[in-house]
Design brief:
116 residues; mainly alpha
Amino acid sequence: MSARRRYLKALWRDTRVLVRQSRTSLLIFSVLLSVGTLSLHALYRYPDTGQPLGWAESLHAALKLIFLETVLPFPDGPLLLQILFTVVPFVGLAVVADSILRFGVALFNRRERKEA
């Protein structure tokens, strides 16, 4: 086996270990993004026109909401949307911070990754 192939195989194995250690955070982030996108698409209406959001707009708004940069006005409508606009930024911030910390520790703790 060539040195390049061994290196690529080790890199792939190392990446799998890092993803496995971060799977809970990735799963929570994916669920948060999916629920946010579906909720915004189904329930949110622009205040001035009453038009619903498209799928791309819903995905973009959900991502912005997770990272504390909402582009939409706070909804007057359903309570679920108001809860979504209030809770998602806190949960998203916690998940992102947790995943960055776990990934950073795992990335620099090479000995533990070799054991895994």
